[in-house]
Every structure is written in structure tokens, then in C-alpha cells.
Structure of Inner membrane protein:
Amino acid sequence: MIKRTFWMLLGLMSLLLGLIGVFLPLLPTTPFVLLSAYCFSKSSHKLHSWLINHKLFGSLIIDWEKYGVIRYKTKCIATISMIVLVSYPLIFLPIVIWAKVMVIISIILVMIFIWSRPSLPVMKE
């Protein structure tokens, strides 16, 4: 019972961070949603099914769980949104240089993760 509660709470927190990440470029949505799916698979069949059948996140989770891929379109949307949403504050707002460097490093690391994943499923013979 305690394990299920732990996985449920972790899944809910992760999903919340993923939803916030839709609007904040430094919080990547994809890893948090994938973590939520994993946590819900350990705690709640109902929530896991809901997430898999979700209009926005379902295909992302299925692609990851079955094939370990992030589709090309998802990669492009993530990259463009991170660049657009981070560029303005970094260029036009008076932010200390070390904070700008940390943001740039974070964005680069997230992009490396996203673009290092395969884009299409590899069908085994």
C-alpha cells in the first residue's frame, strides 16, 4: 500500500511538472510525462490507461514504451518552443551572465537528450 501511494504521488507530481513544462521552456514536458506513465503503471491501472489514451500525451507514451522513440515532429516542436521561449529573456532582460549560461547549458542538454533518441520505430524481423 505504501509503495503504491509513493508511485502515485510521484506520478502526479511528475505529471504536474510536465504540464507546467508545456508553458515553461526549462521544464521539459516529455521526460516528466514518461516518468508519470511509468509511476502510474506501478500504482494505478486507471491513471496509466487514462494517460495512454490522452489526446495530447498518449501517442508520445506509446511510442516511448513500445519503441523507445520520440517522433521527429515532437522533437521539432520541443526545439522551436525552447529556443523561442528562452531567446527573448536571454537577449533583452537584464539577467546575470551566470544565470544565462546555466539556462543555455540546460537547454543544450535537453536538446541533446531529445535529438539522441530515435525518431522512428525499428521493426524487428
Summary: The chain has one domain: 2-116. The chain has six helices and no strands. The two ends are 41 Å apart (CA to CA). The mean pLDDT is 89.
